[in-house]
Each structure stands twice: as C-alpha cells, then as structure tokens.
C-alpha cells in the first residue's frame, strides 16, 4: 500500500482498531509492528501459494508466559481494609508492558485466560498471600476486592489513552490508572491464583463486573454459568449507580 509493506493475517480472535480486508470470503487483519494500521483504501497483493500461509494465526497465550525479564521494575501500592493500612511492592516487566503497547485490542477472554508473568507470581502474589491466612473464602475474596478497588486509581480509557485499551494485569500494575474491565481481569486472576476458586468476568451492556464460585453457600445476586453459581462482585465503586437497577438487589461491593 503506497510505499509500505504489511502482513495480512487471518486471525482466530476478533481484533479491534485494526484495519482489515476481505479476500476470498476470509477476513485478513492488517498487522503492523507498531500495533496500529492506518486506514487504507486499496492494497496490492501477490499470487503465490505457501502451505503454512493457510494456517489461521492465533493470539492465544494460555500455555506459556511471554518471558521478558531484562527490565524488571517495582511499584508501591497501599490500601486500607477494616481500619488497617496495608502496603506492598509489586514487580513487573517493563519490556512486557512495552510489548503489549503493540498488541492489537482483542476479545476479553484473551485477557482473562492469558498466562500471567512469573514476575507477578513471585512478587504480588507472594506479598498478598500472608494477608489471606485464617480468612474464610468470603473474607479473603472481600480482601482482594478491597485491594483492587483501593490500590489502583480509576480513570476511563478515554481519559487515560484517548481510545479503548484493555489492560493485561502486568499493565494494570504499571499504568497510573485503570478502569472497570481492567479491575475485573486482575481481580479474577487474583481470586483464581490465591484462593483456588473459579472466577469469571461478567460483561453487561454498559459495564463489567466479576463472578466468584464459592465452595460454600454465599448470599448475593448470582448468575448460573456452565452449571456453576457465580456470586456477582462489583469491582469498581464508581458504578454504585447500577445498584439502583432491579437486577442488582445485592451484589458484593465494599463501599469507599
């Protein structure tokens, strides 16, 4: 296209904010090393056959982490819970954050299911785990909810980036602000890794929350998914207004 060469790939996941063309009834996304592709009116392709070029590309990262360890940085977090102040420091890979800057926006499931960096496991999880000792499942989940709600400052994507950007947990640790879907993603990750409970993201028409499946009976609004009951958690206090809706009679929310 003009004087630029691009890679066109048929991708398993849906990609957003990325140009695409339909060729032979297949959608080909325009992939670019800087993560963006400007709008193009026309392209010139070549005719040639390569066996492997017929494979569908996938952005799945469920089995292996992206091991970028050469630039590890640290950030301090603090929050209060039941009249007590908690402080911790979490490490993250700045190289991984820079890599994600080029990552095309995709389906929410990709962010929930991706293999998280071992850097988070060895720093953030290790520091949070002792605080959960001797707590019930509900108490421990509420503690993690408080951490997610209070340790991270809130701004919408439009305010912080001027466009929609879903954050991986590593990015949530790095950027100064995060919004509701980012909090839902890291909350689900923490519940699953630290408590061994099944958790899911819950997407509504105008916001996102999370659901936790407890091994004991817990009261509260819930959804049934895959034969499991998930108690609804409102991960962002900025969406208290949704409690006024009939569907939200009793979601779990720690008020600011």
Could you describe the 3D structure shown?
The protein is an alpha+beta fold. The protein contains 7 helices and 13 strands. The chain has helices spanning 94-101, 108-113, 118-128, 137-150, 157-160, 169-174, 180-195, and strands at 7-9, 15-16, 20-23, 26-31, 72-81, 84-93, 105-106, 153-154, 177-178, 198-203, 208-213, 222-225, 228-233. A 4-stranded antiparallel beta sheet has the order 10-11-13-12. A 3-stranded antiparallel beta sheet has the order 1-4-3, with no helix packed on it. Strand 5 (72-81) and strand 6 form a beta hairpin. Helix 4 runs antiparallel to helix 7.
What are the key terms here?
single chain; 256 residues; alpha+beta; four-stranded antiparallel β-sheet; 25% strand
Query: Topology as H/E string?
Result: EEEEEEHEHHHEHHEHEEEE
Q: Give, in spatial order, the strands making up the sheet with the most strands.
A: 10-11-13-12
Dominant shape: elongated
What is the radius of gyration computed over CA atoms, rounded to a whole number of angstroms? 20 Å
Q: How far is the first residue's CA from the last residue's CA?
A: 52 Å
Report the mean per-residue pLDDT as an integer: 86
Helix and strand content put the structural class at: alpha+beta
Q: What's the β-strand tally? A: 13
Could you write a compact summary of the structure shown?
The protein has 7 helices and 13 strands. It is an alpha+beta fold.
Please describe the topology of this protein.
Layout: E1 7-9, E2 15-16, E3 20-23, E4 26-31, E5 72-81, E6 84-93, H1 94-101, E7 105-106, H2 108-113, H3 118-128, H4 137-150, E8 153-154, H5 157-160, H6 169-174, E9 177-178, H7 180-195, E10 198-203, E11 208-213, E12 222-225, E13 228-233
Parallel strand pairs: 8-9
Antiparallel strand pairs: 1-4, 2-7, 3-4, 5-6, 10-11, 11-13, 12-13
Helix pairs in contact: 4-7
């Amino acid at each position: 296209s003009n004087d630029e060469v691009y890679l066109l790939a048929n991708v398993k996941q849906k990609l957003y904010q990325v140009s695409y063309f339909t060729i032979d009834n297949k959608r080909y996304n325009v992939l670019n090393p800087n993560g963006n592709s400007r709008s193009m009116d026309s392209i010139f392709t070549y005719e040639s056959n390569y066996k492997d070029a017929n494979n569908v590309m996938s952005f799945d990262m469920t089995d292996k982490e992206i091991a970028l360890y050469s630039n590890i940085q640290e950030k301090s977090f603090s929050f209060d819970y039941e009249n007590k102040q908690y402080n911790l420091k979490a490490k993250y890979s700045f190289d991984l954050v820079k890599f994600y800057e080029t990552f095309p926006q995709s389906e929410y499931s990709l962010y929930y299911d991706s293999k998280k960096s071992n850097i988070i496991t060895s720093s953030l999880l290790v520091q949070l785990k002792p605080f959960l000792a001797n707590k019930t499942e509900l108490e421990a989940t509420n503690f993690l909810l408080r951490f997610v709600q209070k340790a991270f400052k809130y701004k919408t994507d439009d305010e912080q980036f001027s466009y929609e950007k879903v954050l991986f947990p590593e990015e949530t640790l790095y950027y100064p602000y995060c919004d509701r879907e980012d909090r839902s993603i890291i909350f689900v990750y923490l519940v699953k890794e630290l408590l061994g409970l099944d958790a899911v993201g819950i997407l509504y028409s105008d916001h996102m929350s999370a659901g936790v499946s407890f091994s004991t009976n817990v009261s509260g609004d819930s959804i049934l998914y895959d034969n499991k009951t998930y108690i609804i958690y409102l991960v962002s206090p900025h969406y208290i207004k949704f409690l006024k809706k009939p569907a939200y009679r009793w979601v779990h929310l720690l008020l600011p």
